[in-house]
Amino acid sequence: MTLFWVSTVVLTVVACFLIALPLKRKKTINDEQLRDELNKAFYKDRLSELQVEADEGLVDSQQELIADLKQSLLDDIPEDTHTKKDSISPMAVLIPSVALIVVMSYSLYAKFGAADKVSHWQEVSENLPELSKKLMSGQAEPLSDDEMRDLTLALRTRLHYQPDDSTGWLLLGRIALANRDVSTAIDAMENAYRLESDSADVRLGYAQSLMMSQDEMDQNNARRILTGLLQDDYVDLRVFSLLAFDAFERQDFPAAVRYWSIMREMIGPEDSRYEMLGRSIQSAQSRMGEAMDQSKSVRVTISLADQVQAPENSALIVSVHRADGSPMPVAAARYPLGSFPRTVVLDDNNSMMQGQKLSDLSELIVRARIDSDGNVSTKSGDWYGESQAVELGEPVELSINSQY
């Protein structure tokens, strides 16, 4: 802050110097001196002409002409030979001008310059380590709204000068997540992930921000990252919690029950969250039962063969067909790729053909395909699987193991 005020003083001094500079310069043109110089030059020039004319015999009374010339020179001199000096002293102009510059500069800054905000910004930047430590320590008393805003301001300032600070981007992303600022959270976490993609904390934060996005590709990317954390044996309740809530929202109730059950085993009955997880499991089981009872439905468990290589942004398409293998599906649904094995439930709400419901079928087959390009009409290179013919209401199991 001291540097800021020193810079304002320097700028003010420069402005005052620019005002004083013209007043300090002496007047380069003096009317009286100029007149005398011209008269002298004219007198000498005329004397030379008279001498030439006398030598040529053109004039008879040279001395009289010289006397007239001298008289005319005297007549040109004003009676008051003392030049009247300026009545205003340069200092009388300089001092008020300097005072006006100083007063106006600091007055206008005090009015419009937001000095209090600049001071607050400087204080917040200095308090960044303390605020960061409080956020990371996970204290029982969370940061207040003012502290969160201060921390965000300080982090943005630091990241402006240190854009390669992955920890700073991670902190900014967590603050944005807490404030439900999805755009800022994704941008900050993406920067942290770009700088430190091997960090489990960064990967988890990035996945968490992507889960809040409404874009299906972002959500698929989040599931891929979370699945990768599980494969790396990264044990963190937040990973299972994110996967569980995501599965519940996608109506993949068996997967939600599985993840919540793992969380219960991890925390034990002594934890206060144990009962809450039990209620979540009951809710998912109830919804799963409702899906099974809705005027006949099809419960499909899908697995992937070892040789299947699914692109990251692929989608899973599950369709129900007549038992005769008709290519036109009676019902179909599209899901994010997610993890396998997985279970999905299709019912009359997924019917595709007008005038015919899934519950009208007595026998059926189920097909599942991994759509790699987002276009359901193209199948070249996609992996797929097909079940045997089963009666409506029976559970279906199939493996995706073939390629178009």
What is this structure's SSE topology?
Layout: H1 2-24, H2 31-55, H3 62-75, H4 90-112, H5 115-126, H6 128-136, H7 145-161, H8 166-178, H9 182-195, H10 200-211, H11 216-231, H12 237-249, H13 253-267, H14 273-293, E1 298-304, E2 315-322, E3 331-336, E4 342-346, E5 363-371, E6 383-386, E7 390-391, E8 396-400, E9 402-403
Parallel strand pairs: 1-8
Antiparallel strand pairs: 1-4, 2-3, 2-5, 5-6, 5-7, 6-9
Domain Cytochrome c-type biogenesis protein H TPR: 117-274
Protein name: C-type cytochrome biogenesis protein CcmI
Pfam families: Ig_CycH, TPR_CcmH_CycH
Q: How does this model look, in words?
A:
There is one protein chain. This protein is an alpha+beta fold and 404 residues long. Among the domains are: 152-293, Serine Threonine Protein Phosphatase 5, Tetratricopeptide repeat, CATH 1.25.40.10; 298-403. 56% of the residues lie in helices and 12% in strands. The chain has 14 helices and nine strands. It has helices spanning 2-24, 31-55, 62-75, 90-112, 115-126, 128-136, 145-161, 166-178, 182-195, 200-211, 216-231, 237-249, 253-267, 273-293, and strands spanning 298-304, 315-322, 331-336, 342-346, 363-371, 383-386, 390-391, 396-400, 402-403. Helix 11 packs antiparallel against helix 12 (237-249).
